[in-house]
Amino acid sequence: MIRFIFRALAAALGFWIAARIVPGVYVGSMGSLLAAGVLLGIVNALIRPIIVILTLPLTVVTLGLFLLVVNGITVKIVDFFLTGIEIRGLWHAILVSIIISLTVWVVSWFVDPRDERVRA
Hints:
With 120 residues, the chain is mainly alpha-helical. The chain has six helices and two strands; from the N terminus they run αβααααβα. It has one domain (2-111). It has a two-stranded antiparallel sheet with strand order 1-2. It starts with a helix and ends in a 9-residue tail after the last helix.
């Protein structure tokens, strides 16, 4: 549960960074950011696997690049359910999903206690 909360906070940070960088992305409040992070975690856990399985042939044909579109669709689903966040189109959602992924990855790399990297 703590790992989920950690990832939700990192995703909220990614939404905030994306709102600063990507034109066409608007975030209403801090509560909207936190709700977006939690909802994105829920969508990634429940809906994203179904979308990935349904689009598997297209993902194989594009050598995995279609997963960027799948991630953008999950961000648009979050946008659909939350009124405090506005993302203008699918391309903006794909850019937001890339920024969120990079943010969660970087934050996890620095903070995640379960990481078993070898340090020299």
